[in-house]
Known about the structure:
It is a single chain. This protein has 289 residues and is α/β, with parallel strands linked by helices. The chain has a domain at 57-185 and 220-288: Rossmann fold. The protein contains twelve helices and eight strands. The protein has an eight-stranded mixed beta sheet with strand order 1-2-4-3-5-6-7-8, sandwiched between helices. A hairpin with a 4-residue loop joins strand 1 (63-69) and strand 2 (74-81). The longest helix is centred in the middle third of the chain and has 15 residues, at 133-147. The relative contact order is 0.14. The mean pLDDT is 93.
Amino acid sequence: MTKIDKNLIPVQALLIPKPILYTGKVLNSISPFLASRFAARLFLTPFKYKRPEREKVMAIESHKEKVNIKNINRDVIVYNYGNSNKKILLVHGWSGSGTQLSKIADQLLQKGFSTVSFDAPAHGEAPGKRSNMLHFIETIQQLEKTHGPFYSAIGHSLGGMSLLRATKLGLMIEKLVIIGTANSITKITKEFAKNLQLSQKTGILMKRYLDTRYGEDLDNYSGGVSAEAVKIPTLVVHDKNDVDVHYAEALEIKEKLTEGKLLLTEKLGHRKILGDQEAIHKIIDFITE
């Protein structure tokens, strides 16, 4: 039997337990409205996983501290990796953790940088069950004041979208790198509903509910919308075989940037790209050039 390449399966489809998928399908058949509320709760619930071996060195050698993010009154776990005053902020993606970009962090240390990263609320070792993009942004803004200044920032997936928004709001960095970052919140919610095997109508209702809950159209937080206000050199990294976020979204974001540069890879998917040495070398070159 042929072994399935997990990089070809959306991470949500991998992490969501089958009983939850079944429950969602039953609700969808009864009432798309009820299914949309069920899906929205799941949408705000990151799935935790065992820390991979490749991330354990960073986890062990970092100085870790629990930090309360005052504006949201939520705790995060901060990883201070290395001792240089030239600091790079690293931001993980949804259901990730502060050591997710460990291979990039290791290379940065060799170039004389140190890194600051964090487990966002309800991620990694941080307490809680639910989280959202606003929590990521508030954490970035507070850490700039308490652990910065940062020379540059690197974000994966939702971490990249959060950094684009934070930079638009005034995050003072000289360069930005985003990896596997989506452009549209609407597309994210539609894909989420699809991965839950729910109807398109349910996905639309879920997005509408989330807009109402947070008091604005969440597409205001989309990558391309934030990118229009980002004036610093920004490297957009994306894999052509990314099944979680289509690489066309990287092209859309790059077109909105004033000083955007595009790096497309192949056959790495949404997660494997974080450990690819060729991609990492090009990211480091962009930061240090």
